[in-house]
Design goal:
The protein is mainly alpha-helical. Helices cover 68% and strands 10% of the residues. The chain has two domains: 206 residues, Cation efflux protein transmembrane domain (Alpha-lytic protease prodomain-like), CATH 1.20.1510.10; 89 residues, Alpha-Beta Plaits (2-Layer Sandwich). The chain is built from nine helices and three strands. Strands 1-2-3 form a three-stranded mixed sheet, covered by helices on one side. Strand 1 and strand 2 form a beta hairpin. The termini are far apart.
């Protein structure tokens, strides 16, 4: 997939597509459950309802994240995407617990399955749709650095593996006649998506707590600063954070005290431009200091 295509596939467009695909897969999987009476397929259908709710909420949060900075939010609204990821993780956990509750009854009271062939066909078709959409979303998420797209893509991949497990389980029931396998597969599916839900909520919490930029971003920043460093210019106290699609870096630039303010400001502008070119979407804040001046962070008096 080429770069222009990825730029066209914005997070908003893809999440709208995700809503449509979720509606289609809900229809397919609900029909599959209805005609087979399989609790495994019921668990698969329930996860598709989570896909729909997550895509709708994700679309709302991405729309908010695109709002420009204002007086109340001078750094923008980019962190709204983390709420989407956390909300999706919470929905996944609720769905997993509901699946375990529904499947638990069938372990001790298994029911025969009906029209297994049609049910499996519908499940495979819905899984193919989710897999294709997840593949596109992962590429677009890297291009746009969107955690909302990444969360939705990971959830769709989980859905694909869920459907694969359900298909294998129902096929095993049809071949062996062991009806209890249907409920066992459903519980296994629930435990799998439960783990993914917890992981999504953890990632969301880290983003809301101003997690540092990714190692590759920090390496790019350091490499850019190294290009300006020499005997009379040095950088220190480099700190980074991420907020949705944006990255922020704060640092000190030390220079000879004899320099004029104009010369120092010109160099700072060059460094800022180089950083923003190296890391698209980066916002740099550089404090100018003479070489013989040091600053101290986390002074004991600041903690009182």
């Amino acid at each position: 997939m080429n770069l222009p295509t990825l730029q066209f596939l914005t997070p908003q467009r893809l999440l709208r597509v995700s809503v449509v695909v979720a509606l289609i897969t809900i229809a397919l999987k609900t029909t599959a459950w209805y005609i087979t009476d399989s609790v495994g397929l019921l668990s698969d259908a329930m996860e598709s309802f989570v896909n729909l709710a997550s895509a709708i909420f994700g679309l709302a949060m991405v729309t908010i994240a695109l709002r420009p900075a204002d007086d109340d939010h001078p750094y923008g609204h980019h962190k709204a995407e983390y709420f989407s990821s956390g909300f999706e993780g919470a929905l996944i956990i609720v769905a997993a617990l509901a699946i375990i509750w529904a499947a638990g009854h069938r372990v001790f009271d298994p029911q025969p399955l009906q029209q297994v062939g049609w049910g499996l066909l519908l499940a495979v078709l819905s899984s193919a749709l989710n897999g294709l959409l997840a593949w596109v979303m992962f590429h677009a998420a890297r291009e746009h650095r969107s955690i909302a797209l990444e969360a939705d893509a990971k959830h769709l991949v989980t859905d694909v593996w869920t459907s694969a497990g359900v298909v294998i389980g129902i096929g095993a029931v049809a071949l062996t006649g062991w009806l209890w396998l249907d409920a066992l597969v459903a519980i296994g599916v629930a435990l799998n998506i439960l783990w993914h839900g917890i992981h999504l909520m953890w990632r969301s919490s880290q983003g809301l707590m101003d997690e540092a930029a990714e190692p590759e971003v920090l390496a790019q920043i350091n490499q850019t600063l190294d290009g300006f460093s020499h005997a009379t210019i040095r950088f220190d106290h480099v700190s980074t954070r991420r907020a949705g699609q944006r990255r922020f870096v704060d640092l000190h630039m030390h220079m000879p005290p004899s320099w004029s303010l104009g010369r120092a400001a010109a160099l700072r502008a060059s460094v800022e431009q180089a950083l923003m070119s190296a890391v698209p979407g980066l916002r740099a804040t550089i404090q100018l200091l003479p070489n013989d001046v040091e600053t101290h962070f986390d002074d004991a008096s600041d903690l009182i």
